[in-house]
Design a protein that fits this description.
The chain is α/β, with parallel strands linked by helices and 281 residues long. It folds into 3 domains: 141 residues, 3-Layer(aba) Sandwich (Rossmann fold), CATH 3.40.50.300; 63 residues, no CATH class; 42 residues, no CATH class. It contains 10 helices and 13 strands. A 6-stranded mixed beta sheet has the order 6-7-8-3-9-10, sandwiched between helices. The chain has a 4-stranded antiparallel beta sheet with strand order 2-1-4-5, with helices on one face. Strands 12-11-13 form a 3-stranded antiparallel beta sheet, covered by helices on one side. Helix 4 packs across helix 5. Bound molecules: adenosine-5'-triphosphate and magnesium ion (MG).
């Protein structure tokens, strides 16, 4: 296991930010951590990366207790957090040179990753003059420069335009194919469904669901329903009683069905149902 948490809790005064959470992330996985604002996602990343102490419970990263991570472990992980900044006065290229030196990475890799995140033509621009999305891509390039085994991404695409988001998703899948595992927090349900092998839904510091996106959605597909449009343009909905199946079959056999969809819940439907909260802000 690359990441393992056992009954991790964290209190801040009388606020319980995390309430006994447990999960594992295995080799080659993209693991999604979903939950509304304030549910404890960043706190979890801070604990597992050794930046914050848990009140109780233990977490291991790459086999090492998170509370005793050393340089050797840090060289194998990458972090994009909401606190990640850039050296505003250094240009884009030099921002990466600083990290290449710390992480003992050959400098020729800088150009490769700048091209990957679409910043090749911004090399000489001061990082402080980049747009929000460009800055985020620079932070991402920096986090992957040393080809980490495990990458922590805290809402990496929040506030970016759809084209940039799509490019960044492709980059994540490419990294995964090359053997990097990813721990990803997001509010974006489409992102989670598309990228994550497994995920956990967090609500007020408690994990309320875990599994693959499909498993989670199907587990909540209690009332199987189908929506269809007939060739005559009528929109009909069917449940799964014997009588309704009969009517549905008759329409199909008479070739009177133009479109048909099953109505299993989306991840967002599941979350709203289980918590009464919407994931999107
Ligand atoms: N240093 C701190 N001191 C006091 N309370 C804190 C501290 N850090 C986090 N909290 C509280 O812990 C809870 C969880 O916060 P956290 O930042 O982990 O949420 P999050 O899921 O990352 O939210 P968001 O989606 O808004 O980033 C919140 O109630 C927050 O106010
Ligand atoms: Mg957060």
């Amino acid at each position: 296991m690359l990441l393992e948490l056992k009954h991790v809790s964290r209190r801040f005064g009388n606020i319980t930010a995390l309430n006994g959470i447990s999960f594992t992330v295995g080799e080659g996985e993209i693991f999604g951590f979903l939950g509304p604002s304030g549910s404890g996602k960043t706190t979890t990343i801070n604990i597992v990366t050794g930046q914050l102490k848990p009140s109780s419970g233990v977490s291991y990263v790459l086999g090492r207790d998170s509370q005793s991570i050393d340089q050797q472990i840090y060289e194998q992980i990458g972090i994009v957090s909401d606190r990640s900044g850039v050296y505003e006065r250094l240009n884009v290229y030099d921002n990466l040179v600083v990290f290449a030196e710390i992480l003992k990475v050959p400098k020729d890799r800088i150009d490769y990753y700048l091209a990957k995140v679409g910043l090749a033509d911004r090399k000489k621009q001061p990082a402080g003059k980049l747009s929000k999305g460009q800055k985020q891509r620079l932070i991402l390039a920096r986090a992957i420069l040393h080809k980490p085994k495990l990458l922590f991404l805290d809402e990496p695409t929040s506030g970016l335009d759809p084209t940039t988001v799509r490019e960044i998703h492709e980059l994540f899948l490419e990294l995964k194919a090359q053997g990097t595992s990813i721990f990803l927090t997001t509010h974006n349900m489409e992102e989670a469904t598309k990228l994550c092998d497994r995920l956990a839904l967090l609500d007020r510091g408690t994990i309320i669901e875990q599994g693959s996106p499909r498993e989670i959605c199907l587990r909540h597909n209690t009332e199987k329903r189908f929506r269809l449009m007939t060739t005559a343009g009528d929109e009909l909905e069917f449940g799964s009683t014997a009588d309704e199946y009969d009517r549905l079959c008759r329409l199909l056999m008479r070739h009177e069905v133009e479109t048909i969809h099953s109505c299993e819940p989306t991840l967002e439907d599941v979350f709203v149902k289980v918590t009464g909260n919407s994931l999107t802000r």
